[in-house]
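Two entries, shown back to back:
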Amino acid sequence: MSALVMNNSSMPVYGVECQVFAAPAPPRYGGGAPPASRHVGSTTFARIPAGESQQNAVDWAQLTDKAPQSGHTFSMTMMFVDAAGLVWTRSDAGTLRRVV
């Protein structure tokens, strides 16, 4: 598995850290709470220039006991620093939040 990160801004971003989470498929016939997701891997990017994208493999090496199984759904969050030195997080749903 790999993470593809696109920088659609007009300035570079730095120290991009992607955290990958996995959750088992929900119960087939309903009932009960949806399964909780858990951290299963990560990858980092030192710098992504403006308007470019980069792809890195996700590191499972330290998390072999938590490796995702077939049928799991995945989500990702990332944290990065913009050209002005501000820290941001973005969810895979697109929500962007400044870390203060």
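entry 2 starts here
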Amino acid sequence: MARRDYLPGEQEALLIGILLGTAAGVRTDERYDAASQLEDFPSDQVVAALAGVAGDPAQPDDTLVDLCAESLAGIWIHRGAVDHHLLARLGPRGRREAERTVAHRAPELLAR
């Protein structure tokens, strides 16, 4: 299969759609993959989508919350700063996972 070239922003928009389950027939494992892959796209739109899932108190899928929180933490690490305001808005599970990821990969960022 030939590799597809994406326009700027197109790949992250597709992954956000998969994460949020807006496309018809999106499987759970595809949502998990999208949550993990979005760490590679540190845009504000991606942060908002990941935080929306990780901070949704009605989100029943703990694995999806964990993956979104991990990717969110990865973006903060890439940016060199934790968004403490956003971290505080995550649900308890998402907050724990994001803090755990930052503590493991870049503990100095938690103090900033």
